[in-house]
Amino acid sequence: MSMRSKGEIWLEANECAARIGLSKRALRLYEEHGLIRPRRTQKGWRLYGADEIARLHEILALKRLGLSLQRITALLQGKAIDLAGILGIQHDLLAEQRERAEQGLALVRAAQAKLATGTSLTADELIRLAKETNMTENNTDTVAWRRYEQARPRTEIKLDPRRFERYIGFYRHPAGQILAVTLEGDRFFLQLTGQPKVELFAESDSNFFLKVVPAQLAFAPAGDGRAESLTLHQGGYEALATRIDEAEAKRQQDELGARVRDRVPHPRSEETLREFLEEQQRGTMSFELLSDELADIVREQQPIVSAELESKGGLQQLTLRRIGEDGVDVYEAQFAKGALQCGIGFGQDGKVHTLWMLPA
């Protein structure tokens, strides 16, 4: 039975469970874990309103991502409901599933058409067909829940600037960028190579967050309290940056400055970019040359990018235009039917960590 109070509908446990597709036992379990707090009538009956139902939606969405109840409790307990955040994650996952399904259907139709002509499928075609039509892969779930956690509202605390001094210094990101962590008065700042300085806000003694983008920093203090590394949480990914001394940071910045000034590209950038563009036109990609994070992004966007590049016709020429302040080599790619501006950047591990395309 539902009840109405001041324009708001309240559901009793039986109706709430039935309408959402849960058992009353599940509602009790979530209440025991402190995830929901239903109202009580004078007779002790539980009533579930909009806030409880929104939190139940969050719980069910995270369960579908494969998270255990213990993990969900640690993630949500004591935090405000973020329905917009979870809907954004669900939208991304459903959109990705739709794209994968459409891509798989296109491959199946192409294979059916080829078989209808009496032509056999090659080993490469069979391998791609098997991989792209496997709808049981779940690689993006971990990224999705991390993205959700990183997008949640944060609560700022006041931190004694003297406690922040152990974090001051330079850290090297896997993509090769330098993260400079500084203290100015009683305010904390972060600056990545080629990017403006942004303020950090304390969430705990060692965890900080940005307000300009949904990203966080977690410092890892060593035995003497001085941080030897930090983890950057952003976009559903985690990147470990290790401390380097000021001399090494200056040497790397000077090298980048010379590259920018003299327009000296990475020795493999033109060859690798050409290979990527030509592969994408064929609907393939050498993912082993990419960082894990970039490989996931390229997989998501591959159908769109491949279609765009195919419409441009054959690649005719790559011309270096500049070296970006962030160390990315920027080329103009001239095709038979148009041009694109492309950026490619390498990390310390030799893999490509940055790859983008824009209209020329």
Write the layout of secondary structure elements.
Layout: E1 2-5, E2 8-12, H1 13-20, H2 24-32, E3 39-40, E4 46-48, H3 50-64, H4 69-76, H5 83-116, H6 123-132, H7 140-151, H8 161-164, E5 169-172, E6 178-184, E7 187-192, E8 198-202, E9 207-209, E10 215-221, E11 227-234, E12 237-244, H9 246-262, H10 269-281, H11 292-312, E13 315-323, E14 329-335, E15 338-346, E16 352-359
Antiparallel strand pairs: 1-2, 2-4, 3-4, 5-6, 5-12, 6-7, 7-8, 8-9, 9-10, 10-11, 11-12, 13-14, 14-15, 15-16
Task: Explain this structure.
- This protein has helices at 13-20, 24-32, 50-64, 69-76, 83-116, 123-132, 140-151, 161-164, 246-262, 269-281, 292-312; strands at residues 2-5, 8-12, 39-40, 46-48, 169-172, 178-184, 187-192, 198-202, 207-209, 215-221, 227-234, 237-244, 315-323, 329-335, 338-346, 352-359.
- Helix 5 (83-116) packs antiparallel against helix 7 (140-151).
- The chain starts with a strand and ends with a strand.
- Strand 15 (338-346) and strand 16 (352-359) form a beta hairpin.
- It folds into 4 domains: 2-76, Multidrug-efflux Transporter Regulator, Chain: A, Domain 2 (Orthogonal Bundle), CATH 1.10.1660.10; 88-137; 161-258, Lipocalin (Beta Barrel); 263-359, Nuclear Transport Factor 2, Chain: A (Roll).
- The chain is built from 11 helices and 16 strands.
Please describe the structure with a list of short key phrases separated by commas or semicolons.
360 residues; alpha+beta; Multidrug-efflux Transporter Regulator, Chain: A, Domain 2; Lipocalin; 4 domains; four-stranded antiparallel β-sheet; 26% strand; MerR-type_HTH_dom
